[in-house]
Design brief:
259 residues, Rossmann fold, 15% strand, NAD(P)-bd_dom_sf, SDR family oxidoreductase, SDR_fam, SDR
Length: 259
Amino acid sequence: MDLKIAGKSALVFGGSKGMGYATARQLALEGVHVVIAARTESTLQSASTQLSQDCGLAVRHVVADITTAAGRQAALQACPAPDILVTNADGFPPGDFQDWDSETWHRALDLMMVGPIDMIRQVVDGMRARRYGRIINIVSRSVKAPHAELGLSNGARSGLVGFCGGLARQTVRDNVTVNNVLPGAFDTDAQARHIQKLALSQGDSVEAIRKSREAHNPAGRFGRPEEVGALIAYLASDLAGYMTGQSLLIDGGEYPGIF
């Protein structure tokens, strides 16, 4: 299938690892000029080198923290007019909401809501003027099926999704769509950290918790990052111009509802 996005430009946050890396890879394979952004130079350098080798197209990188104005500006200097923006940020570790003070909440909001919204603010007008734009947020299944221990993510990511629901209806006439991808349990470093935290709090082994979580999923496994990358590449494509304001689960069928 020709996604008709060869030659477009994309800015992918969290692109040095996991689902962000898989997304950058799939977009580059489609002929998109990709810039990956994250906070660590060493992992970015390694990722951009590997992606460039695998995809046959130069993938550039920029050190940029989405939670800071300086970080967002650095990302835009590296990719001033993206046709595709993918926001993606690690969640916070599981915990008890009684332990989260206002500073913790503000850090979570900056990471998972305010930073992504400001990035959207800075690129959306250019997309509308060019009459092409695809904004895709990698959030979490927790906005649809909240877990008590993930309250920081439940709250902050839901704020981003709610904001984007309103924006999406304003921009689609200009061929700018805004959608969210809601991953469940995926085989990533973030998932490994989550399981380690649960193991410490529950007094169980990491391996036992992992096996239990895999067995609980109807698919009998964790998701593969490249499955998210493929979904996002479609949402970023010219073929998906009539899909906007949606939050798409990709969780192996673990969510029990039909809506």
